[in-house]
Design goal:
Elements lengths: L10 H6 L10 E3 L6 E3 L10 E6 L6 E8 L3 E9 L11 H8 L5 E9 L6 E8 L4 E13 L6 E12 L6 H9 L1 E3 L4
Antiparallel strand pairs: 1-3, 2-10, 3-4, 4-5, 5-9, 6-7, 7-8, 8-9
């Protein structure tokens, strides 16, 4: 059902961040080797896909997870930087827009929800011409390494479900609340 929606792996994030020369290909890994933790009744853990891309020169890593359910799908990404790198903050819409490539996204209500990641910014959206209702989120984490308060790690992603169940702020908060970071570096 969801194959019509064109989603790119968030490799653009690596290009947008400093120092990506020498990066390896995106390689499949099992859940234990991913920095992403997520469980929810709408998503079948047996259908989850995990991948990691490491840059041998810089030590930066991009962890990606995709989740599927009978009427829902999600993509989560964690960009973990080495100690000498920081990430410039962008709006949630920029990260999600990169993932959906050329799709027209109709943005709705935004908010902030508490979670294990700290207070997370989110924004509800629809994909024009597709029967889905979605929420995108982003959150920087880790210690600051410069005087401008920039953070070293980033987690972002989206959840979409059949539009017969429009995404609400309460449901967005519940989904985001189930996301955490872990795994090996």
């Amino acid at each position: 059902m969801w194959t019509r929606i064109r989603i790119s792996l968030p490799l653009l994030l690596l290009a947008a961040c400093q120092g990506t020369a020498g990066e390896e290909e995106m390689k499949p890994v099992d859940a234990a080797h991913s920095a992403i933790r997520f469980q929810h009744v709408d998503y079948d853990p047996d259908l989850a896909e995990y991948a990691v891309q490491r840059d041998g020169r810089t030590g930066n890593q991009l962890h990606v997870a995709r989740f599927y359910g009978s009427d829902a799908f999600a993509m989560l990404a964690v960009f973990k930087t080495s100690a000498s790198y920081v990430i410039r903050e962008r709006p949630t819409e920029a990260y999600i827009g990169d993932v959906f490539e050329d799709a027209k996204l109709d943005w709705g209500q935004s908010g902030r929800t508490p979670s294990g990641l700290g207070p997370v910014l989110y924004r509800l959206f629809r994909i024009a011409g597709e029967p889905v209702s979605c929420v995108g989120f982003s959150q920087q984490s880790g210690e600051s390494y410069d005087d401008r308060g920039l953070k070293k790690d980033l987690i972002y992603g989206f959840f979409c479900q059949d539009e017969s169940r429009p995404m609400s702020s309460a449901e967005a908060a519940q989904l985001i609340g189930n996301v955490s970071m872990g795994g090996r570096r």
